[in-house]
Amino acid sequence: MPKGRAKLAPHTGGRPIPEAVQNAVRLRILNHAQAHYAGKYRKIEVGFKGALCYVDAYQEPAPGSEGVAALTGETPDEFAERIRNTPVHLVRLGYFGEDRWSLSFYTYSHERYEPCSYPNGEEFGTVEQAFDVGAVYLTD
Question: Any bridge partners for residue 93, and if so which?
């Protein structure tokens, strides 16, 4: 690496996301979700903090899951309401400009976001590509 040039660190850097970019990104993610994953979620929530964008989904309880309520000590209505109000964490994105977003995938086994590459092996990609990675958690 040339002297005096810092290496770009996609999972430790980024810059604050301007409000105009936040609004555009939220709309892009919601439109992409609707076009490609309609029926697999109740609502999508897109939030921002500093250089990061968080994408969560909310879902309806799976058909036939009412029996799980007995195992949790909840009524079927309480169980359904809890599922409807519990976010499914999909991805966290780091902003590096225009259409350069780093990607971290939420792992429920470790209960945290884990840095990862896009499926094409690249360190940066679009918000739509990132959503597609997290959509693995969106089930019918």
Answer: 53, 103
pLDDT per residue as tens digits for the range 24-75: 999 999 999 999 999 999 999 999 999 999 999 999 998 888 788 888 889 9
How many domains does one find in the chain? 1
Query: Quick check: 30 and 44 in contact, CB under 8 A?
Result: yes
Phi/psi-derived region of residue 132, left when phi > 0, alpha when psi is between -120 and 50, beta in every other case: alpha
Residue 92 lies in a domain: yes
Neighbouring residues of 33: CB distance < 8 A, sequence distance ≥ 6? 41, 44, 57, 131, 135
pLDDT digits (tens, 9 = 90+) for 105-137: 999 999 999 999 999 999 999 999 999 999 999
Give residue 122's domain range: 19-137
